[in-house]
Amino acid sequence: MSEAKKKVTAAVGGFGRYAPVIGLVLVIVVFSALTGGGLLSVVNLQNMANQVIVTALVAIGAVFVYGVGNFDMSLGGAVLLSAVLGAMAAVRSGSIFLALAVCLAVSALLALIKGLFSAYIEVPFFIFTIVLGSVISSVVLVIMGSETTVYLKDAVKPVPSFDFTQMTIINVICLLGYFAVCLFLFNYTPVGSKVRMMGGNRISAKQSGINDKKMQVLTFLISSVGIALAAFILIIRTRTIGSQTAGSTGTDVMIALVLGGMPISGGPKSKISAGLVGALIVTVLNSGLTMIGLSTGVIQIVRGIVFIIVVLVASFSYRGRLLPR
Amino acid sequence: MKKKLLSVLLASAMALSMAACGGAPAGGDSNNGGNTQQDSNGGSADANVQDDGGDASGGDVALDGSYPAETVKIGLVGYDNTSEQQMAIQEYLDYLSEKFNIEVMYSENLADAEGELNFISDCAAAGCKAVIGYYNEALSEAAKTAADYGMYYWGGFGGNKDEVEAAKTTCGEYYLGGYTLGEADYEGGRSLALALAEQGCEKVVFCSGGASFGVTQFVERKEGFLAGVEEAKANGVNMEVVKEVEGWPGTDSFTADQTAVMGMEVDAIASSFDVAMWFQPVMEAGKAESVKLAAIGEVSDTYHDFFNSGLVSVIVYDNEEVVFGNAIPLILNAVSGNKLVDADGNGFQYEVQRWTITTPEEFNAVYDLHDSGNWVVTAEDIAELLVDLNPDANADTFKTFYGSFGIESVMQ
């Protein structure tokens, strides 16, 4: 490779590293212009804070899981089961604190199951999670029995409700709090470097003294906190949990991670910001496209094209490198 | 690398041009000049309404999309943009958008309460004045969300009176009301059974949909159907349900049941929802002449040929413009400061009829009307219900108008 070509490749690679953030800024600028500034109105900023929360919380936690190379397709199912059981607890007790505790316990239990399976069973993990997602859906149907939806209005005593502004505050606190903790763990503790090393080359990581089994369980447990928070927020925001709840969360999280610049097979290029940036891109895009009044078909086409652009640009940063991811 | 950059540039240009093309506002022409009046379709001469292209002066208004002066944006919460009923509603609202200065935003396919609430908040950001809750998973929470943003909310809540009361409380002035079909689900099931009994069917298969999962509307339809069977027996028809098919098409159990039914001697298959999934099995089994199909469904292309051939003999039908289109006059009145209210000062539920269609003539009457671009309830009819255009319009005239439509009135 000539020197000039190397320089060009390096420059494009450098650009690609920041492509998700640039993409986010571009999407904001373009849709702000198309909506006459409506995209960044106070009301819509609050809207977007409420809309981004579930995908962002799950995606941020998923960086740890995907980072070690575990492709988890049961994230939506985990949110669903936590939300259903949490909502049932709220209905039977009238307590949102119990609902939160149940959400945390259920998602932690699922994380433990996934972590142990990933650590000790030699079966492709993504196949296990596909099956697990399906099993969770069935379990939810069995648990709900003849009821198709759990309504908080049926609680034994009134469950506190939150207005729009209160909900926004709760969302922002949860999101920033969880992001800050994950950022610290991923960037400033050995947990993050171990995750990246395991995703890069698990055998080398093991030989360098990393306890890969323990680390795998730990990544799922960290991720489970985001899942539980997402389930809890769904409960208090919608006050309605059905068997279809969080049905698109798994896909949304994967799209968000890819758009955020996360290599889907994990490794050294994994970054915690991917979950947040990607979720923001998806939310701004959806909100902007809806606001400019496009038909639903055109929205899907434009969204698909934008996704392809961002993924293409993001791919410049790692294509042709020594360790393609 | 050049190819990659070129592909990105081309894709960007495509995305931007599509976004720009689709974003044009649908504001109407505000030119109201002229003065030629014409009676509306409903026969009343009160409304100051003119046909398209007519001139108007003073307070007179032409139904050319210029009323009201400011575009009224409305969000419609739907669950499936490909469902025949939703497409029919969209077609009707497109027609009304040409006559009134309204613009309707449609949600993408929604499956849960979160998506529903997100769409409602997007509607607010897009400047919508009202939301039509065609799909409603979050129940009164959706109405509350709309009200929080200062948008009017229309929704029937499937006749759930508790939710209507909750919406009245939480939404206050922003709750417009919605239709109720009364005991329509029960009556719909009963009508299916009685219509089949009248056609001489004795051995009947019943597809109960979500009844076994406890879905209220299907439970009620099943109860109504079984009551109809008992009623038919009391009237001397030896009718019985020989098999109940539970659940939904596409599942293994449903397919297995279909196979089993095709091996049985039956006179009719009644479905508490769509019945199109039985067309192929019945025809392939060579039973198109001996088995009748009955459904709670649509007057649509899907059923046209099969109804006329006699394979489908009963359809219990919610006419789109009567059951759902009534949201438009309520919204237009509300945004113009003339909200129609009940005696208690709140939005109200009003009864509309579900039609039982049992003959090709009845089916074709509705089908041909829609096919030729006409509607059971026209824009001129709606203008009669707008206080701005007809000062005599009120909640009672509204209820009487929409409550009066049945298949008989269409035939007349």
How many helices of chain B does DSSP assign? 16
Shape of chain A: globular
Largest chain-chain contact? A-B, 58 and 52 residues
CATH topology (level 3) name of the largest domain in chain B: Rossmann fold
Order of helices and strands of chain B: HEEEHEHEHEHEHEHEHEHEHEHHEEHHHH
Number of strands of chain A: 2
- β-strand amount of chain A: under 5%
The CATH architecture designation of chain A is Orthogonal Bundle
Q: CATH superfamily of the largest domain in chain B, please?
A: Response regulator
What keyword list fits this structure?
heterodimer, A: 325 residues, mainly alpha, ABC transporter involved in vitamin B12 uptake, BtuC, two-stranded antiparallel ribbon, 2 strands, 74% helix, 2% strand, disordered C terminus, B: 412 residues, alpha/beta, Rossmann fold, 2 domains, 6-stranded parallel sheet, 6-stranded mixed sheet, 42% helix, 15% strand
Q: What does this 3D model show about the protein?
A:
The complex is a heterodimer of chains A (325) and B (412). Chain A is mainly α and 325 residues long. Chain A has helices spanning 3-17, 19-34, 42-67, 75-93, 96-120, 125-144, 164-188, 190-200, 202-207, 212-238, 249-259, 273-291, 296-315; strands spanning 149-151, 240-242. Chain A is globular. By secondary structure, chain B is an alpha/beta fold. In chain B, helix 7 (216-234) links the parallel strand 8 (203-209) and strand 9. Chain B is globular and about 60 Å long. The termini of chain B are far apart. At the A-B interface, helix 1, helix 3, helix 10, strand 2 and helix 12 of A face helix 1, strand 4, helix 3 and helix 4 of B.
